[in-house]
Each structure stands twice: as C-alpha cells, then as structure tokens.
UniProtKB/TrEMBL annotation:
<dbReference type="GO" id="GO:0016757">
    <property type="term" value="F:glycosyltransferase activity"/>
</dbReference>
<keyword id="KW-0812">Transmembrane</keyword>
<keyword id="KW-0472">Membrane</keyword>
<dbReference type="Pfam" id="PF09258">
    <property type="entry name" value="Glyco_transf_64"/>
</dbReference>
<keyword id="KW-1015">Disulfide bond</keyword>
<keyword id="KW-1133">Transmembrane helix</keyword>
<dbReference type="GO" id="GO:0016020">
    <property type="term" value="C:membrane"/>
</dbReference>
<feature type="transmembrane region" description="Helical">
    <location>
        <begin position="48"/>
        <end position="69"/>
    </location>
</feature>
<dbReference type="InterPro" id="IPR029044">
    <property type="entry name" value="Nucleotide-diphossugar_trans"/>
</dbReference>
<dbReference type="InterPro" id="IPR015338">
    <property type="entry name" value="GT64_dom"/>
</dbReference>
<feature type="domain" description="Glycosyl transferase 64">
    <location>
        <begin position="87"/>
        <end position="328"/>
    </location>
</feature>
<protein>
    <recommendedName>
        <fullName>Glycosyl transferase 64 domain-containing protein</fullName>
    </recommendedName>
</protein>
<keyword id="KW-0808">Transferase</keyword>
<comment type="similarity">
    <text>Belongs to the glycosyltransferase 64 family.</text>
</comment>
<dbReference type="InterPro" id="IPR004263">
    <property type="entry name" value="Exostosin"/>
</dbReference>
Length: 333
C-alpha cells in the first residue's frame, strides 16, 4: 500500500423528538439526588418506592429489547433511482456466543434487503443451520484458525456485491440497516457504517465516539457495523501489501477494522468513509460474559498501538477528516 486509514445504548432519532428526549433524560438523571433527599431507604415506604422504581426500569428495558428483537422487523427498503438491491450479512462468532447468535439471526433475517447470512465460525462445536430461526438462508463458514482476519476473508460463495459486516452483539432496527444500505449504494467505494471514530494527535491515540463528536468530524468507521464492497475490501485486505498489518492483528487479536480503514484510505484520494446515525443500537455483550473486548483500557491501548504501526506502514488518516451533518436527509447528525 502506498503511504497516505464499544458501544452503548443509543436511542435518538434525528427529529424534534430527540431534543425533548434529551431534556427528559437530563431531568431523569437528577432523580437519584432527589430520592436520596426525600426517600428513606430504611423505611418500608422508601423500600416500596425503590422497588417500584426498579420494576419500572426493568419493564422499560424489556420493552426496548422487545422492540429490537420482536416484531417482524421487516421495514421497507429504500430504493435508489427507483431500484432495489440486496446484500449479504456476515458475522463472526464462536460457540460461547451461540445463544446471542440465535437471536441475532432471527432478527436480521427479517430485514427486507438481506439475501443471505454468513456466519464465520472461529472455534468450538459447529451448530447446524437448522438450529436457527431464519427467514433467509444461513451458511456457516468454519475456519481452521481463530483469527480476526477471517472477518474479511475472500469468499467466492458470496453472491452480492454489498456485505454488511455486523458484530453478533450489535442489535439495531431493520430501518437503520436499510438506511445504511441505501447510503452505501450511493457511495459503494466507501466504508459506510454506524460507529465513527477520529484518529489524530501525536502520538496517535484511539478514542471513543464522543471525541469525534467533540471535534466535529471523523476519519474512521468501525466495521463491527458497516457496509463494504466485498470484492474490493476483501481482496485488498488480503493483498501482500497488507500482510504486515494482518500479522499485527493476529499478534494483538485486535484492530482488523482499523487495518481495513487504512487499506481503504490508501486506495482513494477522496473520502473513504461515510457515517449513518442509528436510531437504536444495543450492545448485547454488556449482558454476557462472552464479550471479546470487555476491558476497555486494554482494548484502547492495543488499538493505539495499532494506529502507530499502521500509520508507519501506510501513512496517516489525520488529513482525511469528514464532517458530521453533511447529508440533506439528516442521517449523519
């Protein structure tokens, strides 16, 4: 390559409702202080009030999860120039996350534009496709080595140009997925996804999305939820030029998404990433012990190490900043 590349619950929509919702949440955050003053936990009334608050919180959370997992989920696709298309959904997992995968497939298989779901199986007892409740074909691709590089392996059995790379612990609405697919069809040469990051500074440091928001721009899209051109992305990722990067990915068991961003940036003189804001996004790994990157500090340290190495190998991303709020439809606020 020539020199030139974590999520919490989000529930805002780009409309006036979101501002009212933010105001409500701000007021809600003040409730604990109010309760400490007016509710006495040692009294039976205090315990009753706290119990009712707890039950209400559980009910609210369950209704949110039901909204994501339940229903038919098959919102209408968005046409581009009057035409519709389909994509392949690809996720990578292993046996300890099977319970999550079943819910994942049940939900996303009902999204209108999904043609097939490909499960990259990295380790453990391989399930049968018949174990999944799916509205579309499910293919399990068993890998010999447990490597994050398998996510972008060239797969001649994929029949669509577009692939949605989606972590098995990310749940969002089908409407968000369909909007992302429409944006990718407008810019098929870009990584189009839902989790932006900004890489800058000296030394380079990996930071969360709020840093990109503060700086009003981004130059990286995490591929835990992103649309790609399967032929371009996979062939470039497995090129000889990217071999040193793949070696580091295996060494740290991290950063495959960071490497792909550098690969894309190195192949284009224009913007190589595009952001779409999801209305809802739930990271279900927060509810299990099978998360890949539960230790945030260690995770971020590894990714900062990757940034330094990839910049040395492939050049900087610092001068490739894209701004939020550039789309007329408001999908990138």
């Amino acid at each position: 390559l020539r020199k030139r590349s974590d999520t919490l619950l989000t529930w805002e929509r780009p409309n006036p409702l979101s501002s009212k919702l933010r105001q409500f949440c701000t007021r809600l955050n003040r409730v604990p202080t109010f309760l400490r003053v007016w509710v006495k936990p040692n009294s039976w009334i205090g315990r009753l009030v706290l119990f009712l608050i707890f039950i209400s919180g559980v009910a609210f959370m369950c209704s949110g999860v039901t909204y994501i997992y339940g229903g038919n989920g098959a919102e209408e696709p968005y046409p581009l120039n009057g035409q519709y298309s389909q994509f392949t959904l690809l996720t990578m997992t292993y046996d300890a996350r099977l319970w999550n995968l079943k819910m994942f497939i049940r939900h996303y298989s009902k999204c209108s534009s999904v043609k097939e779901i490909v499960v990259v199986w990295n380790k453990g007892m391989v399930p049968e496709p018949s174990e999944f409740d799916s509205a579309v074909p499910v293919r399990i691709r068993v890998e010999e080595q447990n490597s994050l590089n398998n996510r972008f392996k060239v797969d001649p059995l994929i029949k669509t140009r577009a692939v949605l790379e989606l972590d098995d612990d990310i749940m969002m609405t089908c409407d968000d997925v369909e909007r992302g697919f429409k944006v990718w069809r407008e810019h098929p040469d870009r990584i189009v996804g839902f989790y932006p990051r900004l890489v800058d500074g000296n030394p380079l440091k990996y930071r969360a999305e709020n840093y990109a928001r503060k700086k009003k721009g981004y130059n990286m899209i995490l591929t835990g939820a992103a649309f790609l051109d399967t032929q371009f992305a996979f062939s470039r990722y497995w090129s000889e030029e990217a071999k040193a990067g793949r070696t580091l990915v295996d060494k740290l068991f991290n950063c495959e998404d960071v490497l792909l961003n550098y690969v894309y940036a190195n192949s284009s003189s224009s913007s190589s990433v595009e952001y779409v804001k999801p209305a809802w996004a739930i990271d279900t790994s927060k509810f299990s012990g099978a998360a890949i990157s539960r230790n945030t500090n260690v995770h971020y340290q590894k990714r900062s190490e990757c940034l330094a190495k990839f910049a040395e190998l492939y050049g900087s991303l610092a001068n490739r900043k894209s701004k939020f709020k550039q789309r007329k439809d408001g999908w990138d606020v």
